[in-house]
Amino acid sequence: MTDSVLRQRDGAVATITINRPEARNALTAQTKVALLDALRDCSADDGVRAVILTGAGPAFCSGQDLREHAELLNSGQSPLDTVRRHYNPIVETIAEMPKPVVAAIPGVAAGAGASLAFACDFRLAAQRASFLLAFARVGLGADSGASWTLQRLVGAAKAAELLMLAEPLDATTAHRLGLLTSVVPDDDLAESAMALSARLANGPTLAYAAIKESLLYASAHSLGESLEKEADLQVRLGASEDHQSATSAFVNKQTPVFHGR
């Protein structure tokens, strides 16, 4: 892994940090490869039960590094193959990860950076954070899943407005629209993100994975198919150690302890 993406571990919580603060954590090809590797490692690591995605310095992620993008355009190459090569698998890995992902947003999240935040399960933003769906400003459509996630968060009409007009949103407005889980004082972001992630890491990891899987499935399937999916998942979870021990704890008026098994 390059130093453009850092990974730290605190118990069962892994923190992945996009580490290009001098460029507002803009995404080069190298950074995208490193980010995907870090996400896949966390997804596969059974010892990791919650993931924080954040950016170094005062920004979350300003999206595609346009300097690199312009250089590729000027050399006659097509830089937009990065959508299939990099952005799509990054977003799919976040969405399909069998554990919760918390975006900790210290500042600006623009373009693909905003899309990455919207793909996470929870989004905590500092009061100074802002959001910009900047694609139309450079003559492009939505990518990195924004066409899918955004309208599920705010509705189709508002999603079209945010993408077409490409006006910035402050954290308070983003929270009011339903884009954020919460807004916290700037200096409290890291502590708040860790507190939520630690709570999730101590929770029923297999149940969280099933909830993510069922929501993703139901978004593209009928009610009947979704009911059948839920039934399959419940059978699988019913055999888990977590379910059996939690049921016993409930019956005996004890606090359940989950191990993700």
Structural summary, described in words:
- With 261 residues, this protein is an alpha/beta fold.
- The chain has 2 domains: 5-201, 2-enoyl-CoA Hydratase, Chain A, domain 1, CATH 3.90.226.10; 205-251, Lyase 2-enoyl-coa Hydratase, Chain  A, domain 2 (Orthogonal Bundle).
- It contains 11 helices and 9 strands.
- It has helices at residues 29-44, 66-74, 82-96, 112-119, 146-154, 156-165, 171-177, 189-201, 205-218, 223-238, 241-251, and strands spanning 5-10, 13-18, 50-55, 101-105, 108-110, 122-126, 130-132, 169-170, 182-184.
- Strands 1-2-3-4-6-9 form a 6-stranded mixed β-sheet, sandwiched between helices.
- Helix 4 packs across helix 5 (146-154), helix 5 (146-154) crosses helix 6 and helix 9 (205-218) runs antiparallel to helix 10.
- The longest helix is centred in the N-terminal third of the chain and has 16 residues, at 29-44.
- The protein is globular, with a radius of gyration of 19 Å.
- The mean pLDDT is 93.
* Shape estimate: globular
Structural class: alpha/beta
Distance, first to last CA? 29 Å
Mean pLDDT metric: 93
Number of domains: 2
For this structure, what is the CATH class of the largest domain? Alpha Beta
Count the beta strands: 9
CATH architecture of the largest domain: Alpha-Beta Complex
Q: What's the CATH superfamily of the largest domain, by name?
A: 2-enoyl-CoA Hydratase, Chain A, domain 1
